[in-house]
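In the current project phase, we have settled on a layout for protein records. One protein thus recorded is set out beneath this paragraph:
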Amino acid sequence: MTVTTGLSLNRLHQLKAQCITWPGALSAVVYLAIIQDEQHASLEPAIQQEISDKLGQILKEATARVEVFHREMELLEGSCILDIMLVYEIVDDAFTASLYPSNVVRNLARLQARTPLIGLFDVDMLLSSALALELSTPAGTASQPSGSASSMEALLPPDGKVALIVPAFDINAATARDHFEMAEIADRAVSFTKEEMVQAYQSQVSG
């Protein structure tokens, strides 16, 4: 399975956290909105060129950040197999730039996936270690008897069309002192068993 997700450039740290919790294929699309004054076409050619150069520099710096990030993920032992795409859009104002095209970005990530089965996840979602093992373990490995299908494959009908709904939990902000502690709780929750997650839910640590 390929985990697919979309994000803005300032959320690469969340993509890293997701990549660390998923050892399989991950397709990510980074969206960048570049603001250009709507009067650009009516300006003097020299000013137009200056503005175009600035926009080009923004794109160049964004590309460099994504390339560095991809190299870091490749060197990170046990992390995801990452395919990452940077897309950009020229917009007229800050309001338009704030309108994140989530469906477009999500569909691009789906098109970039290399496996028949894909998972749609927001970039701030972490996969539990048990789920990651279940979804990424092929049939006939140490965790599955030789010649038997994995539990994931067993769910697939003959035509291969199936949708699986995975439960998601949020960390209850009231149980943490600050965002740092919330992140620590989330990191621990990734390794929880189902029983431990139920206990966390019942104690209102997650919901």
